[in-house]
Amino acid sequence: MKLYHEVRGCSLAVDIVARELQLPLALEWVDMKTKRLADGRDYFSVNSKGTVPTLEMPDGQHLSEGCIVMQYLADQCPGNTLLPASGLPRYRVLEWMSFIAADLHKGGFMPLFKAVTPPEYKAVARGIVEAKLQWIDEQLAGRAHLTGDTFTIADAHCYTIAMWTRAHAIDTRRWPHLEAYLARCGARPSVRAAEAAAAAQGERERAAAAAAVAH
Predict the structure, then answer these.
(1) Given CA atoms 109, 81, 2, 46 in this order, what sign does their dihedral have?
(2) Which of 23, 46, 90, 102 is the most exposed place for a label (fewest CB within 10 A)?
(3) ∠ CA(209), CA(214), CA(215), 5° rounding?
(4) What is the Cα–Cα distance from 200 to 51, expressed in whole angstroms?
(5) Distance from chain centroid for Cα 20
């Protein structure tokens, strides 16, 4: 399978999940500014929404939307601990997935990244993000992970989005439960490997941009 991925993007969560499941994914990096792939192809030919992540499945079909891609991957490995197979425990994980995607990602961080967001609204969006992080911190009191003691796809998702605090100079030290949680997640081999792959690609992109300027 192939993952269409972006450096510093939410697609990192999918890579983390795949590594947790020991499902090898070929990483295809997308230039989200130009919507181009490394071979020059138009990314819209893969995903007409132009968003990441997109998963190319074994039969050649493409599946998009990170929440769904992570569920799909977990369901390929029966008996895994990343997503319960049925019952209320499964829905608790999916409840978190919905909150992270809608409230923390789209409703919170995305306006901070958009160049078209008016400065006055960025201050509002920052307040929204901080309120959501405060709430997550409260939920993590007495828990190792979002739904209890077990790392799930929701944790891969939450870690990825919450780490965007670094891009916007939001100090997480005011939320001690969240701070400890991010450290625990960040120490997992799957997270470290996924972040290392993204960092290496980021270096390649910076080197290519510098070479283009030099010529």
Answers:
(1) negative
(2) 102
(3) 100
(4) 21
(5) 14
* End-to-end CA separation in angstroms for the chain: 36
Bridge partners (DSSP) listed for residue 3: 27, 55
Q: Is 33 helix (H, G, I), strand (E, B) or coil?
A: coil
pLDDT band of residue 208 (cuts 50, 70, 90) is confident
**What letter does residue 207 receive in the DSSP assignment?**
H
Give domain limits for the chain.
Answer: 2-79, 87-189
Exposed, middle or buried, 151 (CB in 10 Å: 0-12/13-18/19+)?
A: buried
100 touches 154 (CB < 8 A): yes
Please list the residues that pair with 198 across neighbouring strands.
none
pLDDT tier, 75 (very low <50, low <70, confident <90, very high otherwise): very high
Q: Which pairing describes strands 36-37 and 54-56: parallel, antiparallel, or unpaired?
A: unpaired
- 194, amino acid identity: A
Q: Would you say the pTM of this structure is higher than 0.70? A: yes
- CATH superfamily ID and name for 2-79: Glutaredoxin (3.40.30.10)
Q: How many residues does the chain have?
A: 215
pLDDT bucket at 119, cuts 50 / 70 / 90:
very high
Per-residue pLDDT tens for 11-41?
Answer: 999 999 999 999 999 999 999 999 999 999 9
Angle among Cα 171, 177, 181 to the nearest 5 degrees reads 90
Fold entry, domain 87-189 = Glutathione S-transferase Yfyf (Class Pi); Chain A, domain 2 (1.20.1050)
Q: CB neighbours (10 Å) of residue 31? A: 13
Q: Which two tokens stand for residue 147?
A: 């739904």
